[in-house]
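Student: Please help interpret what follows.
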Amino acid sequence: MEVQNLMLRSIPGFALGCSAGLLIANCLLANGYTQRRPDPNREHTEWIASTLKKIQTIKAGSTRRDLLTVFTHEGGLSSRTSSVFVLRECPYIKVAVTLRAVGTGGPRSTTSGHGPDLYAGESDSDVVQTITTPYLQWSIMD
């Protein structure tokens, strides 16, 4: 009989202990205190986020000089006022841009510093009128 009484008295204590343990475990899970597996895509996601922020700095009203700090000419058919530009860090990320010509253009120094200026006639002061949402596309080689 004493063993039965002892068992009956310890059941509420045991239940209370289990409840407290479950409550603590639930709080730890909710607050992120559990060990998480590393996410191999995290670096890619962070790069995309920072790249999108950089791209968003170029908008209507930016100059060609501003544009060329983030993008470079893709190649292919283009004009002083309409061209496709590729991200300097990844040639598969592109935007189509229309610009308003400012001044007469003529020779300009290249922002990239790579060889002769193939885009003479353009002006660093030309103004972005429209820029598309960035899109992905294979490089066009000509």
